[in-house]
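Two records follow; treat each independently.
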Amino acid sequence: MNKHFSLAVACVLVFAGAAAADEIEDRQALMKRNGDTMKILAPMAKGEAPYDQAAAMEGFQQFVDTADRLPDLFPESSQTGGDTEASPKIWEDQAGFETQIDAFREDSEAALAAAPADLASFQAAFGAVAENCGDCHETYRVEKEN
């Protein structure tokens, strides 16, 4: 009986580790997609690329989708491993982290709803969203050392 219990515990730990790795991979893929979106939107906001409303709307929708998925991608079991850049502050200050995600969602939804038709209105909407990204990364992300 004890041998079976040990085997069961080992299986649970293996599956929990695999689930945590999946969540880390999922959030890394999501953040990579956000980074790719920023590479399209930031040059538009800086006037380095022509304003493209369809691309802006697609980007803002990506950010809303990100905000909807983020809360589920940071369980306790995913604090380490998988080359994560998640700061321990996420789990130390879950309320603050959730507040940051909520602000990102609200600004992304507002930008999407505004459907900025010109560069000036896009810049205002994008600025609020980008500021949320920077604030969250500053507090809740650990930069990898090269």
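The next record belongs to a different protein.
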Amino acid sequence: MLEGPHIASVFDRDLETIQARIMKMGGLVEAAIMSAANALEARDEEMADEVREGDVAIDALEEQINDESARLIALRAPTAVDLRVILSVMKIAGNLERIGDLSKNMAKRTTVLLQMHSIDGAASALRRMAREVELMLKDALDAYIQRDAALAEDVIARDRDVDQMYNALFREFLTFMMEDPRNITACMHLHFIAKNIERMGDHVTGIAEQVVFLVTGEMPEELRPKADRTSVDPKFSPTPGDDADDDEAGD
């Protein structure tokens, strides 16, 4: 008669272990975002290299989370509610891994930009944009731990601010390139860093959406159109393979 509670306690313990890994992974990703942005602003190649090297630990945690989640599903036959938790955890881990990749991509482009003259104000503006994404991620993870759907919805709404920051930087970089063709190469790299940060915001939004799903059982309704308008701007159309979410995926 004690088998049921015993199995339940083992399941809860295993799930707690997985969720602890999610929070550890989230902390590493938060640090990677700001270290990449700070490396760009400080023109610090050593810091940029540390971000690139640190991505290995983020990838390893995602693999652990996925393996342990699959094992938990196979061995514990979770109820519908518990299964929802496990699937949400796996999707959150996937979003965190992509944010880590995008931080690594920022660091890669920083090492290239160090060989060029700096564009006034660009690095500090990108750092502010990255800081906003990092704060969104912190709140999304807090919402997950607290099962706070309202906080998660707030994070989703704040992605519009990140999109607007990206759009403003996009226009600024275009201006720099038109004013002086010597700025084109540097501004192209800076543009893709901005796009990386904007994509980070999308992945943070994905995490927040999983929190809403976890709490309510339903994905949040699409309340707004995507505020990134540059994809339809005829002045600038990235070449095939330049999608920032796949930017320099290999190391």
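Discussion point: The mean pLDDT is 88. How would you locate this feature using only the token line?
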